[in-house]
């Protein structure tokens, strides 16, 4: 499985850490939001894959 959203999570963490180090709360918040977007992409990909698997399984069970 391709790790969708991984780059967003990594970039977001870097922004958050940089924001903490410099005292820039806005950058910290941007980093946290970017990490959340990355996590959402990851979850979306998992749901898509499971849906595809379930569809294949259902077609196989019906004899198609």
Tags for this model:
64 residues, mainly alpha, 2 helices, 84% helix, rod-shaped
Straight-line distance between termini: 26 Å
Proportion of residues in helical segments: over 70%
- What is the residue-averaged pLDDT? 91
Indicate the proportion of strand residues: under 5%
**Poorly predicted residue ranges:** none
The topology string of helices and strands comes to: HH
Structural class: mainly alpha
Give a short account of the largest sheet: none
Number of beta strands? 0
Number of helices: 2
Global outline: rod-shaped
CA radius of gyration is 18 Å
Q: Can you put this structure into words, describing what you see?
A:
- This protein is mainly alpha-helical.
- Helices cover 84% and strands 0% of the residues.
- The protein is built from 2 helices and no strands.
- α1 runs antiparallel to α2.
Sum this structure up briefly:
The chain has two helices and no strands. The protein is mainly alpha-helical.
How would the blueprint of this fold be written?
Blueprint: H1 6-22, H2 25-61
Helix pairs in contact: 1-2
């Amino acid at each position: 499985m391709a790790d969708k959203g991984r780059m967003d999570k990594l970039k977001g963490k870097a922004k958050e850490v940089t924001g903490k180090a410099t005292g820039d709360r806005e950058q910290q918040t941007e980093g946290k939001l970017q990490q959340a977007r990355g996590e959402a992409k990851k979850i979306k990909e998992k749901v898509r894959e499971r849906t595809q698997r379930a569809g294949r399984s259902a077609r196989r069970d019906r004899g198609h």
